[in-house]
From TrEMBL:
<comment type="pathway">
    <text>Amino-acid biosynthesis; L-histidine biosynthesis; L-histidine from 5-phospho-alpha-D-ribose 1-diphosphate: step 7/9.</text>
</comment>
<dbReference type="InterPro" id="IPR050106">
    <property type="entry name" value="HistidinolP_aminotransfase"/>
</dbReference>
<feature type="modified residue" description="N6-(pyridoxal phosphate)lysine">
    <location>
        <position position="226"/>
    </location>
</feature>
<dbReference type="Pfam" id="PF00155">
    <property type="entry name" value="Aminotran_1_2"/>
</dbReference>
<dbReference type="InterPro" id="IPR004839">
    <property type="entry name" value="Aminotransferase_I/II_large"/>
</dbReference>
<dbReference type="GO" id="GO:0000105">
    <property type="term" value="P:L-histidine biosynthetic process"/>
</dbReference>
<dbReference type="InterPro" id="IPR015424">
    <property type="entry name" value="PyrdxlP-dep_Trfase"/>
</dbReference>
<dbReference type="InterPro" id="IPR005861">
    <property type="entry name" value="HisP_aminotrans"/>
</dbReference>
<dbReference type="GO" id="GO:0030170">
    <property type="term" value="F:pyridoxal phosphate binding"/>
</dbReference>
<keyword id="KW-0028">Amino-acid biosynthesis</keyword>
<dbReference type="InterPro" id="IPR001917">
    <property type="entry name" value="Aminotrans_II_pyridoxalP_BS"/>
</dbReference>
<keyword id="KW-0808">Transferase</keyword>
<protein>
    <recommendedName>
        <fullName>Histidinol-phosphate aminotransferase</fullName>
        <ecNumber>2.6.1.9</ecNumber>
    </recommendedName>
</protein>
<keyword id="KW-0032">Aminotransferase</keyword>
<keyword id="KW-0663">Pyridoxal phosphate</keyword>
<keyword id="KW-0368">Histidine biosynthesis</keyword>
<dbReference type="InterPro" id="IPR015421">
    <property type="entry name" value="PyrdxlP-dep_Trfase_major"/>
</dbReference>
Length: 367
């Protein structure tokens, strides 16, 4: 272990859950509903599925390396948002982009700022390159952008923001974002992680891509894993100035996005009807869960994502375990410093009902 860099020695490995079919067999369950990873309950965009089927009909291509520049996907993204190809960096999921950003801008002696309860990959990426993470206390479980501005020092190189944030679902306003940006020195990179951006239906909400012309130090990251339903294929993208994107692309592994992921993402990104359907399902499911948790006497953090962080008003781990035995997988968030909360992803109406009934049984057993 001593051979590993200090930052790596201090990392706790990611603890993946068991495969669903394995768990189902182990617990002798007839059905398992997984509401644990903020995936799209509709699966992939049908346009993506059709493109994948077409690709599999020409399997020889799969023996070749992918297009290392991701030209066609970048073109589709550029067309959709009216940005230049040079502004885009593709990632093996948006997690890959967070890692690339850390590798480009951070090293030993540098500081990166993020919020308490923010997405767990920020500290991982920061520590892995030997930099120091500065975790700023949250305000009402969300990012305290004023406190984050105050945490900037001469060592600060990167600020990570998640809007909406995972696991809390909290968000910040465009005005608060501008107030922060006016206090950030031009050489400090601001990463605006919009993994859940497509779920925000409010037209007045902050849209990172619309801010790129205004802030040369801004990188917006997005993913195909959530609203587009391509979590298993691993595709995300970053948009920034051509200069910043050029830096990210220097470090990016040339074949970081595989051919099937490129093909599926190119088709999915144009499938606005699917995103609308996803958003409508999410809005309805969110109302279903809010009503159900209220009826069970539980409160939730307000969320604009495709998940809810529910306060179980007790230690959440035993409730998580009891739900597992009922065939419902949710996400305990004790590792985030939220030992009494469970993060529950919004499913289909039927999956939600299954999980709500299980939760009601579990809670009654405990009362
Ligand atoms: N950012 C946030 C806030 C997330 O919740 C996630 C997914 N859990 C990601 C980034 C990364 O998503 P992916 O790598 O699947 O694109």
């Amino acid at each position: 272990i001593k051979q590993a860099r200090l930052g790596v020695q201090g990392l706790a490995p990611y603890q993946p859950g068991k495969p669903v079919d394995e768990l189902q067999r182990e617990l002798g369950l007839t059905r398992v509903v997984k509401l644990a990873s903020n995936e799209n309950p509709l699966g992939p965009s049908p346009k993506a599925l059709a493109a994948l089927q077409l690709a599999l009909a020409n399997p020889l291509e799969l023996g070749r390396y992918p297009d290392g520049s991701g030209f066609r996907l970048k073109q589709a993204i550029a067309n959709k948002f009216g940005c230049a190809l040079e502004a885009i960096t593709l990632g093996n999921g948006s997690n890959d982009l967070l890692d690339i950003i850390a590798r480009v801008f951070l090293g030993e002696g540098d500081e990166a700022i993020y919020s308490q309860y923010a997405f767990a990959v920020y500290p991982l990426s920061v520590q892995a390159v030997g930099a120091t993470g500065v975790c700023v206390p949250a305000r009402d479980y969300g990012h305290d952008l004023v406190a984050m501005a105050e945490a900037i020092t001469t060592k600060t190189k990167v600020i990570f923001l998640a809007n909406p944030n995972n696991p809390t679902g909290t968000w910040f306003s465009e005005a608060d974002f501008h107030a922060l940006m006016t206090r950030v020195p031009a050489h400090v990179i601001v990463v605006l992680d919009e993994a859940y951006g497509e779920f925000v239906s409010d037209a007045s909400a902050l849209n990172g891509l619309a801010q790129l012309g205004r802030y040369a130090n801004l990188i917006v990251t997005r993913t195909l894993a959530k609203a587009y339903g391509l979590a298993s294929l691993r595709v995300g993208y970053g948009v920034a100035s051509a200069e910043l994107s050029g830096l990210l692309n220097r470090v990016r592994q040339p074949f970081n996005v595989n051919s099937l992921a490129l093909i599926a993402a190119e088709a999915a990104i144009t499938d606005e009807a699917f995103v609308q359907q996803t958003r409508a399902l999410n809005d309805a499911g969110m109302s279903q869960w809010l009503a159900a948790t209220q009826a069970l006497g539980l409160s939730c953090l307000p969320s604009r994502g495709n998940f809810l962080c529910v306060d179980m008003a007790a230690e959440a781990m035993p409730i998580f375990q009891a739900l597992l035995r009922e065939g419902v997988i949710v996400r305990p968030v004790g590792a985030y410093g939220l030992p009494n909360h469970l993060r529950i992803s919004i499913g289909t109406e039927e999956e939600n009902s299954f999980a709500i009934n299980a939760l009601a049984r579990v809670l009654n057993q405990q009362v």
